[in-house]
Design brief:
flat, single chain, mainly alpha, 2 helices
Length: 67
């Protein structure tokens, strides 16, 4: 149970931080396009890491799994 509560608190803190960063950038620039850049800066690294993790283990050796 403590792990679940800690995980919940960590995920909540990450979401709060994302909102605060976007709010601060918008407050400094008053440009909605800046929010797009902030969102992409937060999303693209996660997407790239996800794509790396989903690659098959033997993708660099075609046919090795068939032997």
């Amino acid at each position: 149970m403590p792990f679940l509560l800690g995980r919940l608190a960590a995920v909540g803190a990450i979401h709060i931080q994302a909102v605060v960063v976007a709010w601060q950038i918008y407050d400094m620039t008053r440009d909605p396009l800046s929010l797009v850049y902030v969102g992409l800066a937060q999303f693209i690294p996660m997407l790239l890491m996800l794509m790396l993790m989903l690659m098959p283990a033997g993708a660099d050796q075609p046919g090795a799994a068939c032997q």
